[in-house]
Write a structure and sequence with these properties.
Elements lengths: L1 H21 L2 H11 L16 E16 L4 E13 L15 E5 L8 E3 L14 H5 L2 E5 L3 E9 L2 E2 L11 E10 L6 E5 L15 E13 L3 E12 L2 H17 L13 H22 L8 H31 L6 H26 L10 H28 L4 H35 L3
Parallel strand pairs: 1-9
Antiparallel strand pairs: 1-2, 2-6, 2-7, 3-5, 4-8, 5-6, 8-11, 10-11
Helix pairs in contact: 5-6, 6-9, 7-9
Subcellular location: Membrane
Protein name: Neurotransmitter-gated ion-channel ligand-binding domain-containing protein
Organism: Mytilus coruscus
C-alpha cells in the first residue's frame, strides 16, 4: 500500500514538473504568433458560409438608477460570450502542453453584439479608452472553445407604468442581437433566468421577476431578451408623500371646526390649499406624463378640487357671518338660509317635545289643582311662542341665536359632506391597491 502511494506521489510531481518547465515563454509566444496570423475580420469557420453559434449568459451586478420620468434604466451588466473557433486550434503536445491562451480582442475575432433598446451606445462593448480595450482578452482552449467576458453600465429604455404608485412595478427588457448581415452569427441563450447571486441590492428598486427568452428567424437573424421586473420599495414615498397628503386632507376638514368670529378660518383654508399646490408640483417632478395616469395623481387632484371648494365655503360663511352681524339679511340667499335653519330647528324641537310626552310614567293621582297648573303653563308657553313668531315676521329679522345656528348648520353639512367624499376615496383606493394585478 505504501508502495502504491509512493508511485502516485512520484507520478504527480513528475507531471507537475513537466507542466511547469514545459510551458516556457518561447512556446507560448510561438503559439500566440501562430494564432495571430489569422485575420480578426473573418468568421471562425473553415466554411465561411456556416453561421457561428454564440452562446450568451448575463449577470446583473447592480441597478444604479431607474428614472421613471424619462423611462431609462441603468444596470451594471456582465456578459459571458462563448463559441467554437474552428480556425484557432492547436495540438497542446506540440506547444509544451499549453491547453489555453488569451489573445487581445484587437488581434482576434469577437462577435459584434448590439443592444436594440440602448439609449446611447448600441454595442455591449463599452470601453472608455484604448488601454481598456487592449487589456481585454479572449480565452481560447486547445479544442477551439472561446470565452469572452465583458461588463459595464448601460442605459436601457424601459416602459413606465406608475398606475399604482408608490406600489408600482415596471417591466424592462434588455434586447441583444448580433449586428451581422445574412445571419452569419446566431445568438443563443444558455439560461432561462438571470443570475442574481452577484447583484448588489438597490435602496429604491428591487428585482422581483426575471426571465430569458430568444428567437431565431429562419437562420437569418436572432434576438435574445433578458426580461426583468422592477418593483419600487414603497416605504420612503409612502411615509414622505402619500401619508402627509392623506393627513393633510383630514386636517383640511378642521376649517369648519374653527369659529368664524376667531378670524383664523380663512387663513387656514388658503394655507392648506397652497400646500396641496406645492405637493402637486412635487408629484409632477416625480411621475412621468404617460398613460395610464397614476391613481395617486388623481387622488391628489380631487383633494385639490375639494380644498378649493372648502376655501369657497369658508369665504362664503365668513361673508354671511358679517352680514348677520350687521343684520343685513335682505338678500335672497341669506334669507333662504335663515328660513331653512329656523324651520329645521323648530322641527327638531317639536320632535323632541313629542318624544318627551310619549314617555311612560307611573300611574299617579292627578288632582284638579295639578291639571289647572299644567294647562296654565302650556297656555303661557304657546302664547310666548306665538308672540315670538309674530315679532319675527313683523320685524323681518332673526335673533343672534338663529344667526349662529344657521352658520353651525352650514359648517356641519360641509364637514360631513367632505368627510364622506374623503372616506369614499380612501376606501375605493384601498380596494384597488389590494386587488392590483
Amino acid at each position: 500500500m505504501d508502495f502504491i502511494k509512493s508511485v502516485l506521489i512520484f507520478t504527480y510531481f513528475t507531471q507537475l514538473r513537466f507542466l511547469i518547465y514545459g510551458q516556457t515563454f518561447d512556446e507560448i509566444s510561438n503559439l500566440e504568433r501562430q494564432l495571430k496570423k489569422f485575420s480578426p475580420d473573418l468568421n471562425p469557420r473553415l466554411n465561411q458560409k456556416d453561421p457561428v453559434d454564440v452562446s450568451i449568459m448575463a449577470f446583473i451586478t447592480a441597478i444604479l438608477d431607474y428614472n421613471e420620468v424619462s423611462g431609462t434604466l441603468q444596470p451594471v451588466m456582465s456578459y459571458v460570450l462563448t463559441w467554437m473557433d474552428e480556425i484557432r486550434r492547436w495540438n497542446s503536445s506540440e506547444y509544451g502542453n499549453v491547453t489555453s491562451i488569451s489573445l487581445p480582442i484587437t488581434t482576434t475575432w469577437i462577435p459584434k453584439i448590439s443592444v436594440f433598446n440602448m439609449v446611447r451606445h448600441k454595442s455591449i462593448f463599452m470601453y472608455h479608452n484604448e488601454m481598456e480595450m487592449r487589456r481585454s482578452h479572449v480565452n481560447y482552449q486547445s479544442n477551439g472553445f472561446a470565452e469572452f467576458h465583458v461588463s459595464g453600465a448601460q442605459d436601457i429604455t424601459c416602459s413606465t407604468d406608475v398606475k399604482y404608485f408608490p406600489f408600482d412595478s415596471h417591466a424592462c427588457s434588455i434586447q441583444l442581437f448580433p449586428d451581422y448581415a445574412h445571419g452569419s452569427v446566431i445568438l443563443k441563450s444558455e439560461m432561462k433566468t438571470f443570475d442574481l447571486k452577484y447583484a448588489v441590492s438597490n435602496t429604491e428598486w428591487s428585482i422581483t421577476e426575471n426571465s430569458v427568452d430568444g428567437e431565431v428567424y429562419a437562420n437569418v437573424s436572432s434576438i435574445v431578451r433578458f426580461n426583468l421586473t422592477l418593483s419600487r420599495n414603497p416605504s420612503f414615498p409612502f411615509l414622505n408623500l402619500v401619508l402627509p397628503i392623506v393627513l393633510l386632507s383630514f386636517a383640511n376638514l378642521l376649517v369648519f371646526c374653527i369659529p368664524v368670529a376667531s378670524g383664523e378660518r380663512g387663513s387656514l383654508a388658503f394655507t392648506i390649499l397652497l400646500t396641496f399646490i406645492v405637493f402637486i408640483t412635487m408629484v409632477t417632478d416625480i411621475l412621468p406624463a404617460c398613460k395610464p395616469i397614476s391613481y395617486f395623481n388623481i387622488f391628489l387632484v380631487i383633494q385639490l378640487f375639494c380644498s378649493v371648494l372648502i376655501a369657497f365655503c369658508t369665504v362664503r360663511t365668513i361673508s354671511l357671518h358679517h352680514k348677520f352681524a350687521e343684520n343685513d339679511t335682505q338678500d335672497t340667499f341669506p334669507q333662504l338660509l335663515l328660513t331653512l335653519s329656523w324651520a329645521y330647528r323648530n322641527s327638531c324641537s317639536k320632535n323632541q317635545q313629542k318624544g318627551n310626552t310619549s314617555q311612560l310614567f307611573s300611574p299617579r293621582v292627578i288632582t284638579e289643582e295639578h291639571c289647572n297648573e299644567t294647562c296654565v303653563n302650556k297656555n303661557s308657553q304657546s302664547q310666548n311662542e306665538l308672540e315670538l313668531i309674530k315679532n319675527a315676521k313683523k320685524d323681518n329679522r332673526y335673533t343672534k341665536d338663529i344667526h349662529q345656528y344657521c352658520i353651525q348648520c352650514i359648517d356641519s353639512i360641509c364637514f360631513s359632506l367632505f368627510l364622506i367624499i374623503l372616506c369614499i376615496q380612501l376606501g375605493v383606493y384601498g380596494i384597488m391597491f389590494s386587488y392590483k394585478p
